[in-house]
Amino acid sequence: MRVVFCGNPEFAVPVLDRLLTSRHSVVAAVASPDKPRGRGRKLSPLPVKERALAARIPVMQPVSLRDAEFLSDVRALDPDCLVVVAFRILPRELFALPRLGSFNVHPSLLPRGRGPAPIRWTLLRGERETGVTIIRLSETVDGGDILRQERTAVGDDEDFGSLHDRLAQTGAGLLLEVLDAFESGTPPEPMPQDETQVTTAPKLRAADFELDWNRSAHELNHHIRALSPFPGAATRWNGGRFKILQAEIATSIPDVRPSQVQADPKGGLVVGTGQGALKLKRVQAEGKRVMTVEEFLRGRPSIPDCLGE
Question: Containing domain of residue 107, as a range?
């Protein structure tokens, strides 16, 4: 099958890689315009564009997905389908253009987790199960008919980084199953989504990165896992920004109030919460590298009484 691939971030790269090693032909990649990155704010390509150029695939970067010249160029490629992974909202003029329409790889068990940040919200909500869904694009964002879905348990210690990488690989395999089925003439039976089961996964704001020590230890641990390894759940330490990248529920709960810090007799630090306590494991002080709490505490004769100040 002739495929036009639409995507931007790292999550989309394993899907593109799997397509490139399949019998299907990626005739072009569509990516957003280059963005300023780094301290110098130099314009840099997004991961999908970098991978496509390395594989010598033509790359289109339209400012508007409704641009007449862009749509004409896609039509001239005569694609059987568009594959969309972590991209932008496609207008009907584009997603309905190919013979078979457009397929989206979404890292949630739709209709749960509609929106741009499903993996983070899976962890924030403490959900025990997630998965990947392949849908056919429709006018409703993330609301198209389900073509394939695969479930998986969320590991107790999984964070955004590890779950992201695992679901990207799952999505790559699941997409190929769908494309192979269409090519063989036995496409999967589309299943409408149950609108009564919809949950949303909106983009997180900067304020969402801050830890509220009045919440329970379990909620805070979910929060930390959802933001690790980047951008990192944040609080304050002696007036500076302090990121917590890994923690665990303290099994022997000391008598500490929310945000109060206490040295753990077995090593490390314990912080009080609204219910229970957290033992910190990996942290990053402002301007420093990520390190274990034991590394961080070396050479520090004292610790603050509270975090968040």
Answer: 2-197
The string of pLDDT tens digits covering residues 52-111 is: 999 999 999 999 999 999 999 999 999 999 999 999 999 999 999 999 999 999 999 999
| b/e 186-209 (16+ beta carbons within 10 angstroms → b) | eebeeeebeeeeebebeebeeebb
Neighbouring residues of 264: CB distance < 8 A, sequence distance ≥ 6: 250, 270, 279
Query: Are both 193 and 139 inside the same structural domain?
Result: yes
* pTM, full prediction: 0.95
> For residue 279, what is the domain's CATH number?
3.10.25.10
The total domain count for the chain is 2
The neighbouring-strand residues paired with 182 are: none
How many alpha carbons lie under 13 Å from residue 192 in its C-beta half-sphere? Answer: 3
Q: What is the pLDDT of residues 31-46, one digit of tens each?
A: 999 987 766 678 889 9
Same domain, 127 and 254: no
